[in-house]
Structure formats: structure tokens, C-alpha cells
């Protein structure tokens, strides 16, 4: 009899887990809350991925094609887990969709519910949703993906753009004192993309600390040396309205030790990553633990980062904390192998 494994979440991690398991002959059920697969990259129409600026469709699009064409994968769109019960070493799960509810028994479960972007409106100093030309990184990704990079206020291309890092990250005031890990690199990637496509548009990045870790540091140097992106170590105190329909970034240059007030046509906020409302919901229904930051908690972050505190339930991707898409895809494969090994062991 074939193994039956449930994957919750159809983003990069969940897609790769489902595809790998189906290639092993496993019957996979993939439950996705949205009406489409691909997670945030698809939702916000990511165009290029760092560090090599590879088209997102070459990565996420390929995984979606494999999942939707794979004979061993049953996808439930716009669906959720409404009931979850342990049945010995198996799990009885009720899936609720627009077509009704269906209860199925699974040998193992992989949770890959991803993350949510921090809402910059929670920090008033950034004036998000107050000024049309203050957007965040997911808004910019969508604009780039739709080839519609213009100022929301007047529909014209901007002449200069400011990127502000660590919005909703490393900030006890908003409750997120952790680093979101990829926002610096995403912003640098976006600044490069902006300069390549709109060479007359100036790009500035304001940062506390640049954390383009590992080989992502190459993008940091490329942005400055090849694309003339201005990277300024400074803290933004507030964003206000300026002359000629601009927005003014007020802050302090912490290297030169001086205040500044600079008008920009647009401001892009590098909003951080949060566990989102799905994490506590899944935690409650499945009986798995949350960490102090609101993400799902692995059994042992070093020795068993893909295992939850419940045997047979495995974790993958950004549901356990901030990480890059490439890391999430890798974790999806690892969780798939852990889930498969668990099922084989408990036949």
C-alpha cells in the first residue's frame, strides 16, 4: 500500500516537499489556503531572485508545474485544516474547502505554512498608508513583476527612491527584536534591478547594519560599484510630506554624525518577516509548539530542525523563522526525507 503524506502550505518549501515525495511514489495531499500555489513569491509576483537574479518563474514556476502535473499530488486550493486528531502513529485530518469537508488519514504531516510580511502601518514614523508614495518591499516586487514601476500618487516614473532597512525587525518597540535575515539582500537586489531598468532613477539605501551574509555580500559591492547605489548608514526618525509632491526622510547619518532631511519621489520600506496568523492557528490545531517570536518551534534547532515536538509532524521553510527562498526549498526536501523515513519505519 502506498504511503499517504499531508503537506500544509504550497509555497517554496511545501512545493518541493510535495514534488520530492511524489517522485518517491508517495500519495501526497497538498493543502493551500490561497487559490493558487507558489506562496508569497507568486502572490507578490517576484520577478528575480537573489543572489544570481534568476527569474523567479524558472524556480517557483517549475515547482508549481511539477506539483500540478504530478499524478501523485492531490491539491486542495482555498482550503484549510478544520480538524486534526492523532490516530496511533497516523493522523485523521479534516480538510475544509469550498466544496465541503473531507476527512482523510495520513501517515505523516509536513507543515510549510510560510511567513507574513510585517505591516509597516504598525510603526507610525514610516507614514505607510498615509502617503501613497511610501510602499514596502512586497509592493515593489509586485510593481516590478507587473512592469508597472511608477509613483502611486501620479503614475509617473520616480526620479529618486529611498530604501529603508529593518522595518519591523530588530525593533523592540514593535515586538520583533530578531533580524529578518533577508531584507537587506532583497533591498539591495531591488535597488540593482531598479537601476538596471531605470538608469535615470537614483537609489539610496538607509541602514543600521548591512547583513548581506555569506555570498550575498557580492550583491552589496555590485550595487555600489557597478550600479551606483548610494548606501548610507543612518536612522530614519520620520517620513513627512515635502514640496512638489515628494516625501521627506528625516534622520541622522550615524557615520558623519549629522542630521539630514532628503526629499524623495518614493520610499520603499524593507518590512520584516513574521510568523503570521497561520502559525498560532496551526500550533493550536496540531498541538505543536510556537517559539517566543511567533514562529513554529523545531524540536531541536541544531540536531533536528525539521522535526516538531510531535512525532510524525515535520516542519519546513519560513514557518520556523526568517530565511531565503533557496533555504526554504532545501528545507522542503529535508522535511520530505524525514517524513518518508518516519513512514517507512512505522509501517
N-to-C span: 10 Å
Order of helices and strands: EHEHEEHEEEEEEEHEHEHEEEEEHEH
Number of domains: 2
- Alpha-beta classification: alpha/beta
**What shape does the CA trace take?**
elongated
CATH classification class of the largest domain: Alpha Beta
Q: Please name the CATH architecture of the largest domain.
A: 3-Layer(bba) Sandwich
Oligomer: single chain
The largest β sheet comes out as:
7 strands, mixed
Poorly predicted ranges? none
> CATH superfamily of the largest domain, please?
FAD/NAD(P)-binding domain
The total count of helices amounts to 8
Estimated radius of gyration:
22 Å
CATH topology of the largest domain: FAD/NAD(P)-binding domain
Strand content: 25-35%
Q: What's the helical proportion of residues?
A: 25-40%
The chain-level mean pLDDT equals: 94
Strand order of the largest sheet: 11-17-12-13-14-15-16
Number of strands: 19
What would you note in describing this structure?
This protein has 8 helices and 19 strands. The protein has helices at 12-23, 39-43, 56-69, 137-145, 183-197, 217-227, 278-286, 325-345, and strands at 4-8, 27-31, 48-49, 54-55, 73-76, 80-87, 90-97, 100-106, 108-111, 116-117, 134-136, 160-167, 202-207, 230-241, 247-253, 258-264, 266-271, 273-274, 313-315. The strands form 5 sheets. The protein has a 7-stranded mixed sheet with strand order 11-17-12-13-14-15-16. A 5-stranded parallel sheet has the order 5-2-1-9-19. Helix 1 packs across helix 3, helix 1 (12-23) crosses helix 8 and helix 5 (183-197) runs parallel beside helix 6 (217-227). It is elongated and about 70 Å long.
Amino acid at each position: 500500500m502506498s504511503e499517504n503524506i499531508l503537506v500544509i502550505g504550497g509555497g517554496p518549501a511545501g512545493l518541493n516537499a510535495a514534488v520530492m515525495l511524489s517522485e518517491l511514489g508517495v500519495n501526497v495531499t497538498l493543502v493551500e489556503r490561497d487559490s493558487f500555489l507558489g506562496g508569497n513569491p507568486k502572490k507578490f509576483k517576484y520577478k528575480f531572485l537573489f543572489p544570481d537574479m534568476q527569474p523567479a518563474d524558472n524556480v517557483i514556476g517549475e515547482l508549481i508545474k511539477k506539483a500540478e502535473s504530478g499524478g501523485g499530488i492531490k491539491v486542495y486550493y482555498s482550503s484549510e485544516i478544520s480538524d486534526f486528531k492523532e490516530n496511533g502513529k497516523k493522523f485523521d485530518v479534516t480538510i475544509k474547502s469550498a466544496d465541503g469537508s473531507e476527512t482523510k488519514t495520513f501517515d505523516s504531516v509536513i507543515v510549510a505554512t510560510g511567513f507574513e510580511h510585517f505591516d509597516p502601518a504598525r510603526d507610525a514614523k514610516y507614514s505607510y498608508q498615509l502617503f501613497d508614495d511610501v510602499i514596502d518591499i512586497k509592493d515593489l516586487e509586485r510593481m516590478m513583476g507587473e512592469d508597472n514601476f511608477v509613483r502611486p500618487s501620479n503614475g509617473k516614473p520616480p526620479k529618486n527612491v529611498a530604501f529603508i532597512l529593518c522595518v519591523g525587525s530588530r525593533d523592540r518597540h514593535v515586538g520583533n527584536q530578531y533580524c529578518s535575515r533577508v531584507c537587506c539582500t532583497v533591498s539591495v537586489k531591488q535597488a540593482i534591478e531598479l537601476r538596471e531598468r531605470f538608469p535615470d532613477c537614483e537609489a539610496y539605501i538607509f541602514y543600521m547594519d548591512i547583513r548581506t551574509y555569506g555570498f550575498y555580500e557580492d550583491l552589496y559591492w555590485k550595487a555600489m560599484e557597478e550600479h551606483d547605489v548610494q548606501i548610507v548608514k543612518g536612522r530614519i526618525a520620520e517620513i513627512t510630506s515635502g514640496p512638489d509632491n515628494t516625501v521627506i526622510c528625516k534622520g541622522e547619518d550615524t557615520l558623519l554624525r549629522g542630521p539630514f532631511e532628503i526629499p524623495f519621489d518614493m520610499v520603499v520600506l524593507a518590512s520584516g518577516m513574521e510568523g503570521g496568523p497561520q502559525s498560532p492557528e496551526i500550533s493550536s490545531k496540531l498541538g505543536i509548539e510556537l517559539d517566543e517570536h511567533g514562529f513554529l518551534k523545531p524540536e531541536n534547532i541544531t540536531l533536528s530542525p525539521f522535526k516538531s515536538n510531535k512525532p510524525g509532524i515535520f516542519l519546513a521553510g519560513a514557518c520556523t523563522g526568517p530565511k531565503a527562498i533557496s533555504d526554504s526549498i532545501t528545507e522542503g526536501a529535508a522535511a520530505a526525507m524525514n517524513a518518508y523515513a518516519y513512514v517507512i519505519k512505522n509501517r
